[in-house]
Amino acid sequence: MEKLDVKLIALDLDDTLLNDDRQITDGNVSALRECAERGIYVVLCSGRAEDAILPFVRRLEIAGKEAGRFLIAINGCSIFDLHKREQIFCRKVEPEILIRTNQMAETRGLRSEVYTPDTIYYREETKWTKLDVDLCGLKGAKVDDYDEFLKTGFTKMLVPGEPAELLKLQSELRAEFGERAVIFTSKPYFLEILPPNCGKGEAVSHLANELGFGMEKVMGFGDSMNDESLIRMAGHGVAMCNGLEEIKKIARYVTTYDNNHDGVGQFIKEHVL
Question: Can you tell me the mean pLDDT for 249-263?
Answer without folding.
Answer: 98
